[in-house]
Write a structure and sequence with these properties.
The chain has about 190 residues and is an alpha+beta fold. It folds into two domains: about 10-25 and about 110-185, Ribosome-recycling factor (Topoisomerase I, Chain A, domain 4); about 35-105, Gyrase A, domain 2 (2-Layer Sandwich). About 55% of the residues lie in helices and about 15% in strands. Strand 5 (about 95) and strand 6 form a beta hairpin.
């Protein structure tokens, strides 16, 4: 009946890698005490009647390790960009210099570093849960095919494929978490 069952492992892999891409974005938004243009990615500015990413209203630069500058193209938006940064929860106090907004990145104290490593751990756990949910979807497809006549050998083969993919991507999440936590704790 279902001798021609083909589990779409490419789709499962793509979905699992999407969870990892989301994790990378969340990690990029975590401050590590070093300036990074990516830390402003989640900040949206009320520009021209809609929410717009900062990099679409000005040029974001990192001229030195503890400074981010934003050269806002439209003078009328400088106040809105400054307000968006203040309200973003990044804990950075913008300083204005004409159309250039300077963001000095303060040193992180030990307590704040520990808090950030816990937040990174939570982000990683969310990614692991997402990967496991995708694994469960794959296993459910295999069980359904088994009910439709998939042989036991084929079932075992596909279950092993899904489990290997899951293990590989969860190991990737763990490695990225370890790297990010080391980066946060580095003084």
């Amino acid at each position: 009946m279902s001798d021609d069952f083909m589990l779409d492992t490419d789709d499962l892999k793509r979905r699992m890698e999407g969870a990892i891409a989301s994790l990378r974005t969340e990690f990029a938004s975590l401050r590590t005490g070093r300036a990074s243009a990516s830390m402003l990615e989640p900040v949206m500015v009320d520009a021209y009647g809609q929410k717009t990413p900062i990099n679409q209203v000005g040029t974001v630069n990192v001229p030195e390790p503890r400074m981010v500058t934003i050269n806002v193209w439209d003078k009328g938006l400088v106040g809105k960009v400054e307000k968006a940064i203040r309200e973003s929860g990044l804990g950075i106090n913008p300083q204005l210099n004409g159309t250039i907004i300077m963001l000095p990145i303060p040193e992180l104290n030990e307590e704040r570093r520990r808090e950030l490593t816990k937040v990174a751990g939570q982000y990683a756990e969310h990614a692991r849960v997402a990967i496991r949910n995708i694994r469960r979807d794959g296993m459910d497809q295999i069980k359904k095919a088994k009910a439709d006549g998939l042989s036991e050998d084929d079932q075992k083969f596909w279950e092993n494929e899904v489990q290997e993919l899951t293990d590989k991507l969860i190991a990737s999440v763990d490695a990225q978490l370890e790297t990010k936590q080391a980066e946060i704790m580095q003084v």
